[in-house]
Design goal:
The chain has 345 residues and is of the alpha/beta class. It has twelve helices and ten strands. Bound molecules: D-xylulose and manganese (II) ion. The site of manganese (II) ion has 4 residues, from loops.
């Protein structure tokens, strides 16, 4: 089969200002137009959006106003030759999502979360994408007894069903993450996301996004998560990055913490033909807080560069030799072969 080329995307939030829970921003925010220009200049193909990246302060605006702003944004994207990859409802900022969005104990708050998600669908459709990403930031607990997890599964299904019924064309990609901001999230892994999909009214329209850091945070190998999702035909988007063990969500450049884990993710994508149905490779990476303004885009440029180099590594890996070693159960030699392949000449 002919080798295919990959298409890349990132979101406006990936050109971030360096704030963390212990300190304020260290770089002044840039305009959306500047970010779009940089995305294009770096050779990326699409942009990812939260609903309020597309329409700032969306909750305060009328439907007509939202439509007008999205129309203008679509024009900008068209002019730049950049696609909108997905739109995700930001369900973790508003006071009504303090105790969870879809799984809040307050019915009025749950209603808000669903309404906001339906509006997000309108934004996505108008931007020309059928892909909705759900990162379920606050669906979980700090205090387990504060919520009924069994009941919360029903709430999640109810919310996804409402979205699927609202628009017969959209696909929903759930982005699992085990913790942060919650102590325990309800959908921590790809397996949980795909299992929940089966409970919805149209399971074939509910898939997932795999984020490397999130998989590492739950103690799994992201390459296995890719293979698992792709054996269901349900990996519809990707947030590649890196993570040094069980710490805060680091969103490091792809390959920064563990090159071999990155290599295995690329190998998994290659063997499954990721991208052949138009899926994009997204980098959900952030600049280090220490980053100077003049180096502000390096994490994006470097992640793409590392990815492409690893594609070459995957394509030049001596599969025949590997098969022989596997046949002989000489895994020590296989281990060393991988190391030397990655080290190069
Ligand atoms: C959070 C995260 C989000 C989602 C989009 O950890 O990864 O940026 O990717 O809502
Ligand atoms: Mn992400």
């Amino acid at each position: 089969m002919a080798k295919h080329t990959y298409k890349f995307c990132f979101g406006p939030w990936n050109i971030s200002e360096g704030q963390d829970p212990y300190g304020p921003p260290v770089r002044s925010p840039q305009s959306f137009d500047w970010k779009l220009k940089q995305l294009k200049r770096l050779g990326f193909d699409a942009m990812m959006f939260h609903d309020d990246d597309a329409v700032p302060e969306i909750d305060t605006k009328s439907d007509a106003q939202v439509r007008k702003e999205v129309r203008e944004l679509r024009q900008k994207l068209n002019d730049a030759g950049v696609a909108a990859e997905m739109v995700a409802p930001r369900l973790w900022f508003d006071p009504r999502t303090i105790d969870g969005a879809f799984t809040s104990n307050d019915p009025q708050c749950r209603k808000y979360a669903i309404q906001r998600s339906l509006r997000c669908i309108d934004v996505a459709r108008q931007l020309g994408t059928d892909l909705i990403v759900l990162w379920l930031a606050r669906e979980g607990s700090y205090i387990r007894e504060s919520k009924n997890a069994r009941q919360c599964m029903d709430y999640l299904v109810e919310a996804v069903d409402a979205m699927l019924a609202y628009d017969k064309k959209i696909r929903i990609s759930i982005e699992p993450k085990p913790n942060e901001p919650m102590d325990q999230a309800y959908l921590p892994t790809i397996g949980h996301a795909l299992a929940l999909a089966q409970l919805t009214r149209d399971p074939k329209r509910v898939g997932c996004v795999m984020e490397s850091a999130h998989a590492i945070l739950v103690g799994l190998d992201p390459a296995d998560e890719i293979d698992f999702a792709m054996s269901f035909g349900k990996l519809w988007s990707l947030h590649l990055n890196d993570q040094n063990g069980l710490k805060f969500d680091q969103d490091k450049p792809f390959g920064s913490a563990n090159l071999r884990v990155a290599f295995n993710q690329v190998r998994a994508l290659e063997r499954n033909g990721y991208g052949r149905k138009g899926e994009y490779v997204g980098f959900d990476v952030h600049p280090f807080r220490t980053t100077k303004v003049e180096h502000w885009l390096a994490h994006l440029e470097n992640s793409r560069r590392t990815f492409l180099k690893l594609v070459q590594k995957a394509r030049t890996f001596n599969e025949k030799q590997a098969r022989t070693l596997i046949k002989n159960r000489d895994y020590a030699a296989l281990d060393q072969m991988v190391i030397e392949h990655l080290l190069g000449k």
